[in-house]
Amino acid sequence: MPDETHLPAPVSSAADITTFLLISKSLPPYVSTPHEYQATGSCNVFGRSVPSGWNTTFKGSTEGAADIAFVVDVAHCNRDKDLIKLLDGIDVEFEANGIVDARYALATSSQDNVGTITEFMKAAELAPDLRSLDMKGPPSKNGAAVAVIAAARNLKWRPGVSRTIIQLSCNPCDSAGVKRALRDNDITYHIISKGSISFGGSDAALSTNLRKKVFGYDEKFVYMAGDYQKLKGDADARGLLIDPEPSCMLTAQSTGGTVFSTFKWNPNKAKLEKKFLNVVAQRVAQSSVPPECQECRCGGRGTKAALMCRKCSTWLAEGGNVTQEEETLVEGMKRYFMNFYRGKIDPSDSSEPEKSTEKQPVPNGTTEASAPIFKDVTLPLPTAT
Asked: Most buried among 90, 208, 280, 371, using CB within 10 Å?
């Protein structure tokens, strides 16, 4: 049985200030069942190959790292938006909050077709791609949902690291596929788009006044110009806000993200634009925290293995098979017992999968320049195959 080792910290430099910090704390070995992983092949984890069936859990293990993807509808509604200001604002907020290893990517959509999807890179490296966007086409009919799904599924997100998609669309999308793709990859989703904002309550004048001031909102707060210097949010105003019809605006909130009004991003009003972008940047930085519990698995049900990282509570077993369709533990239990009484699960089969106690070795080193900072965790990575 190979001895477990630790990833060493690479030498820091001006170009790469990121380091690995690993302390001695082993993760429990993963116990698999015969039907969990039907895919073949391997997955890439921090530059090393891991086989189908590899699994580990991150519990607040990373700090100072974040992966952010901009999903942009390259249409005329976004032609005056200065994406460099948004990128720079977020990068500044990240540094102020101790996030020193931020990677950025870009995915575009044109008339509901997926366009460019870049690799993750530093802010300065992504800037030319943002400047070159030609915002002249018509808007996507379904709010560029396909680009959000493609970014969530195809980008090389790092395991155990905060993951965020920021979408600029002409119209909010409406797709169940977006919710599933975000959930399957544990991604926080912020959206900047059109969409009606209305408030209830007996005071019509107050409701009208609030509607004019709102920059954005999430599940708990409404954000306005007063949050420019320090993000606080207004919980009372959020209680009066009327939630939109089911759409990606609700999906964004369910992921811990925010719905921002594109009408408040007005380049012709410099002060308003500055306040709006600063609120967006603060909110993105606030939500870019290490996952409390994220389980990553190499596997799948297709012919090619893929790395999937989800919140721990959403990985459920049903009759020995991992399902990707569960919303909550309660729903999973209900489905299990329904299958039991319908005879889909054999009550006489009391066998349990054999538990693996073999420790997996960790790679001896890494050349990955953008590896996150870890604390209190040892990655059980097997030898490259």
From this structure: 90
Q: How many CB atoms lie within 10 A of CB 87?
A: 22
Q: What is the mean pLDDT of the chain?
A: 76
- Sign for the pseudo-dihedral over CA of 175, 70, 274, 287: positive
Distance, first Cα to last Cα, the chain: 17
- What top-level class would CATH report for the domain 65-287? alpha beta
- Name which of 347, 352, 311 is nearest 329 in CA terms: 311
Residues 6+ apart with CB under 8 A from 15: 369
Contact call for residues 53 and 356 (beta carbons, < 8 A):
no
Spatial distance between the Cα atoms of 384 and 57, rounded to a whole number of angstroms:
20
Q: What residues form DSSP beta bridges with 98?
A: none
Distance CA 66, CA 186 (A): 13
- Chain position carrying tokens 């086989």: 51
- Report the 10 Å Cβ neighbour count for 180: 17
Question: Crossing angle of helices 83-96/123-131, nearest 10°?
Answer: 170
Q: pLDDT below 70 — which residues of the chain?
A: 1-38, 246, 301-303, 314-385
DSSP string, 112-173: TEEEEEPPPB-HHHHHHHHHT----BPPPTTTTHHHHHHHHHHS-PPTTSEEEEEEE-SS--
The predicted-structure confidence for 67-118, as pLDDT tens digits, reads as follows 999 999 999 999 899 999 999 999 999 999 999 999 999 999 988 789 999 9
Among candidate residues 184, 64, 163, 188, the one with its CA nearest the CA of residue 105: 163
Any idea where the domains of the chain sit in the sequence? Answer: 65-287
Q: Indicate the SS3 state at residue 338.
A: helix
Contacting residues for 343 by C-beta, under 8 A, at least 6 apart: none
